[in-house]
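Q: Sequence in, structure out?
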Amino acid sequence: MRRIYESIKLLIKNARTILIAGHIDPDGDTLGSMIALHLILEKLGKKSDMCCQDKVPPSFLFLSGADKIRTSPKRKEYDLFFTVDASDLSRTGNIKVTAKHIINIDHHADNTNFGDINCVELLSSVAEQIYKLAKELNVEINQEIAKALYVSIITDTGNFRYANTLPSTFEVACDLVLRGAIPSQIASAVYDTKTIAGMKVLSYALDKIEKRGKLVWSSLSHEIIKKTGATHDDLICIIDYLRAIKDTDVTVFLREEKENTIKVNLRSKGRTNVSKIANDLGGGGHIQAAGVTLNMPLLEAEEKVISTVMKNM
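A: Exactly. Output:
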């Protein structure tokens, strides 16, 4: 990897315009990594734009620079285009730009190596790679960078509960804490932000739980989501409540964003590879956490997903 980091260092040095893009439906890893990389480049005297197709969830707006993330790029052309936490270029959604060089920084096993430079390692999160890049660039990690990287790590490891948690994850997290990331404050900012609408929509999701063997699932119609006033931020955590059910292996949550647009989240406790299931459905992700968007009615999507999961369990 040292040669890859050296190549990235040279491209950064020669770049005048830089774009950093995260994936659609942004989570803590893509957002924390984007922000950390932006701040690292800033320390090198380089300005960069940050872009995500979808808005930043409110629970991550406490991060320094989160308010600078746009939903569309400022330019059509860039010298350097970083993608973070995206296994395929299509995961960046409608962010279409021309770039002299694409640097793909990711940790998914199914990454398609679409970049001119592919910095892909099977680590806990992209945060670990951005941390290593900062070291290679001789950039001192300050408190704001440490906070962003710590958010990335805890959200992608489920607070160090998932199988992607490695010895190196704890080593990096420890150093980030020493550099100013305060675990209790960050955990509170990320997780203790439930709204009344969020609790109401959760009650509907819990009421609709179904179980078949080691599989548990629930779904919500757009009508119910609209009725409760729930936002994207209220919905993304529901899968974690379902995942906590005893004697289950795979958990599925489907939500109807609009007519014929269904977002599907899949989680596994380790026995079943939900990344493969998501790939079969046209999506992607990790062995224990994956997702896909299906363009069909909710009932049809539910039947398709459950059938595919059962074939793979």
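The domain at 2-191 is CATH 3.90.1640.10 (inorganic pyrophosphatase (n-terminal core)).
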